[in-house]
Amino acid sequence: MSGPVLALVGATGAVGTVMIDIIGDRPSVPWGEIRLIASARSAGKKITVRGEELTVVELTPEAFDGVDVAMFDVPDEVSAEWAPIAVERGAVAVDNSGAFRMDDDVPLVVPEVNADKIAERPRGIIANPNCTTLSMMAALGALHREFELKELVVASYQAASGGGQAAIDRLQAEIEAVAGKRVGVRAGDVREVLDAAGLPVSDSPFPAPLALNVVPWAGSLKDDGWTSEELKVRNESRKILGIPDLKVSATCVRVPVVTTHSLAVHAVFAREVTVAAAHELFSAQPTIVLQDDPEKREFPTPADVVGGDPTYVGRVRQALDFPNTLDFFVCGDNLRKGAALNTYEIAEALAARS
User: Fold this and answer.
1) Which residue in 99, 162, 169, 341 has a CA-CA distance of 20 to 30 Å to 177?
2) CA–CA gap between residue 14 and residue 34 (Å, rounded)
3) Low-confidence spans in the chain with pLDDT less than 50
4) Three-class SS state of 307
5) Burial of 196: CB neighbours in 10 Å, binned 0-12, 13-18, 19+
6) pLDDT at 164
7) Collapsing DSSP states into helix, strand and coil, what is residue 114?
């Protein structure tokens, strides 16, 4: 098959594995060759992609020879070193890490919102947003085009998988520890159960128990008490939507869910907006599924959304005491649309332009 060459760097990681599944699920692909790249310890591993057994090659400069688009699903420091090398070898790098998101010479792209920015890449790199920001971007982009977004207040309910495999393993271990136990209502009861099971919070990637709990903390500490995740929501929303003065406040909360982030969004617009108009707008978007029937208690939840590609929206309400304002709830699989799918959709858009 003729066509551009696609490389996937980090092919054996959590997001890379999801990426391979997404490629396999596509009705067709534009690629003449798909090249899997990973660290030296994974080199030589065999992975089947679209019925073809491929051999993982080691991450070296030569691995990018002949590559047209290189997708990076690796830690920030790896992307920071190797994405420019891929560009030097002739590829366009599409990076899923946080290494380049706020670089002025690197577009931050959500194809449903700002696909035109794909062509504006002075460094030859395109960045994929953080999964929390991405979960609401299809909905906010559609609303902004119609009603002009002015202010945004967000509370996120983030799955453990956003913290990597260690966070998933910790949640699973905590769930097993409390399962079948009659955990009391005193402060510290959950901690006592976890301590007895050999799972002290001091050994956890979370600053508090996550099983039977919610933790109002995601990311690392930044100035004035904000976390890195909360600042990503603010800064990335401004860049993607093209609203540098957008007023944003976010509180990021970790919840005992394995995969799929949820967000409660309070959005203020310059023009009058109604629930009916928002419903019509959401229903017209091919990547949004509207689940919003209050009488039937129909709304999206992570358990029903996980594994899906679209953004799911529900609980759409016109704020009672705030003019030109909508409140809604949104769910998105943070490993698919929040990471792998958006990265791949950017790569597909590049292939269509080649």
Assistant:
1) 162
2) 18
3) none
4) coil
5) exposed
6) 87
7) helix
